[in-house]
Design brief:
Length: about 550
């Protein structure tokens, strides 16, 4: 790893690339000056789904599914010049998890209905450079292509897809209102969406504006604003993020502006009252900002020198400040190394059991931090293994295993390691960091978390719930080895990393991430998305339990 902050460089085999995401769970800035891809000619083949229809897991075993297309030229690999003649890499979009409102962007593979248990390619989106997922029980997805076009699909609550008012959209649809712009990145929340464009670093927002989250200088609780409109900013933006009823941008000058609902002090402006209807500067004591991550209840930012500052709701210990106190002014978190990314928990507008618990292990926020060495740190609730600090399976309700300060993944586990996981595609035994190696991106969502390794493998842990949002074989193997496959709708708790997009044919015989390297992950509450390129990833490096 050559540097930190938003210019983190990862090595995958002999290839070097900048991950599609900046150090933030939802949004990415423009590619830094000088970013380019070296030697991609040997990456292999690309994926495109076949023409046959696949329903409910594709039960017709006599029907042969069309595999990856052969060819290694740039037209198949998705290598495109950027606007300033730099070369950037793009890839095939994959989605998985809850599919009830079209947030998968495809209905060719549904298992169990209406969901998709493992990553599956979205037809027509083979040159994606950035992806974001919106929350709510019914989510949405936004994909930015190498040509600078923005496609959205899924639930259209408050017009957040940018296609005007109307029902959900089940296939990728171009946001026509931005067709004359070169979109660089997008961010989605439960009720609004934002896009960063190349021309002047402008930011467009649309959707619900009940708390002023669109930054237009006013709030409107009765009328939604489904058409993208650029907001007034004092300088060009390099990143945008949005979450439940609020938004933020990082400017080229290193400042951060936030607006919308100020519940729990999550705007970071020194109070927890009211709301702000226009971009308002967050005072960081002279720290220049590289990236920001908005969680549903709290926020964090990474400085250009590797500082980590957190603010907002802290009742689950998720701020990493050593207490369960919420703060309305950014506070610096102590870590043993510079930070390159923070992922605050998204898609968690509410928590079962409520906020500010008196005991540990309750559903709530769980922050994931990435250090410049590629090490991961977690803090917050240990609920269902969310911190990677447990060994044997435990829901952890009421247990004293929450981490109020950053816990380095790979450190001592808090319970024991007597009971191995059911899946051989899980890391076992602890320490988990030895098997997955240095990481380049981390994600935190409602009751699960995930990461991407420097080698292009992606991993998830926590709870797969009833929709397969983690994208792992374990969700399809409730009864254990040697028994017929069965979907585990409620007890798919994973204490440590499980491989995303890799499953044995008994459980999944269709295209997924086998033979691909993941460039970026994104997550909503109940679904996830990834950008991936073909490449030689060793498939069975974890110990078989």
């Amino acid at each position: 790893q050559d540097s930190f902050a938003h210019t983190t460089i990862a090595s995958i085999g002999t290839h070097r690339f900048l991950p599609m995401s900046c150090p933030c769970s939802a949004a990415a800035p423009a590619w830094p000056a000088g970013a380019r891809l070296l030697d991609v000619s040997s990456l292999g083949s690309s994926v495109e789904v076949g023409e046959e229809e696949l329903q409910e897991g594709g039960e017709d075993e006599n029907e042969e599914e069309e595999g990856p297309e052969e060819g290694g030229g740039p037209e198949n690999l998705g290598v495109h010049p950027s606007a300033d003649s730099q070369v950037v890499v793009c890839g095939q979009l994959f989605t998985w998890g809850r599919g009830s409102d079209g947030q998968m962007g495809q209905d060719r593979m549904v298992h169990p209905k209406p969901n998709c248990a493992l990553p599956y390619p979205v037809k027509g989106l083979r040159s994606v450079v950035h992806v974001a997922c919106g929350g709510g029980q019914q989510g949405c997805t936004a994909a930015v292509t190498a040509e600078g076009q923005l496609f959205t699909f899924g639930n259209n609550f408050k017009g957040r897809l940018g296609h005007g008012e109307g029902p959900c959209v089940r296939a990728p649809r171009l946001v026509e209102a931005l067709s004359t712009e070169r979109v660089l990145a997008a961010a989605c929340s439960a009720d609004h969406t934002a896009a960063l464009v190349a021309m002047g670093g402008r930011v467009f927002l649309w959707g619900g504006n009940g708390h002023g989250q669109l930054g237009r200088g006013h709030a409107n609780k009765t009328t939604d604003c489904a058409t993208p409109v650029a907001i007034d900013l004092p300088a060009p933006a390099k990143q945008v993020d949005c979450e439940d009823q609020y938004s933020a941008v990082v400017l080229d000058n290193g400042c951060i502006l936030a607006w919308g609902s100020n519940s729990f002090g999550r705007l970071g402006i020194g109070s927890s009252d009211g709301e702000r209807h226009a971009p308002t500067e967050v005072q960081l004591g002279g720290v220049a900002v590289a990236s920001v991550s908005l969680g549903s209840l709290y926020a964090g930012t990474v400085g250009t020198s590797g500082e980590l500052l957190m603010w907002g709701y802290g009742g689950h210990g998720n701020l990493g400040l050593g207490s369960r106190t919420s703060v309305s002014t950014p506070r610096q978190v102590e870590l043993p190394e510079p930070v390159v990314q923070v992922a605050c928990t998204r898609g968690q507008e509410g928590c079962k059991g409520g906020l500010n618990p008196t005991g540990g292990g309750q559903e709530g926020p769980h922050t994931v931090v990435l250090g410049c060495s590629g090490a991961m740190y977690t803090m917050g609730t240990c609920h269902k293994g969310l911190l990677c600090n447990l060994g044997s399976k435990d829901g952890a309700f009421g247990k004293p295993w929450d981490e109020l300060r950053p816990y380095r993944v790979g450190g001592p586990i808090r319970n024991h390691a007597k009971d191995p996981p059911m899946s051989p595609l899980a890391v076992w035994p602890p320490p988990y960091d030895d098997a997955i190696g240095p990481q380049v991106q981390v994600v935190s969502a409602h009751i699960h978390a995930a990461c991407v390794g420097r080698d292009g493998r992606a991993w998830a842990w926590g709870c797969g719930s009833n929709d397969g949002r983690c994208g792992v074989e374990r969700f399809l193997n409730m009864k254990g080895e040697g028994r017929p496959p069965e979907v585990d709708l409620m007890k798919c708790y994973m204490m440590g990393p499980h491989r995303i997009g890799l499953a044995r044919p008994l459980y999944w015989k269709h295209p997924s991430l086998r033979g691909h390297r993941v460039l970026q992950l994104a997550s909503g509450r109940n679904h996830m998305a990834a950008i991936a390129v073909p490449g030689g990833v060793e498939e069975c490096e974890v110990a078989v339990a």
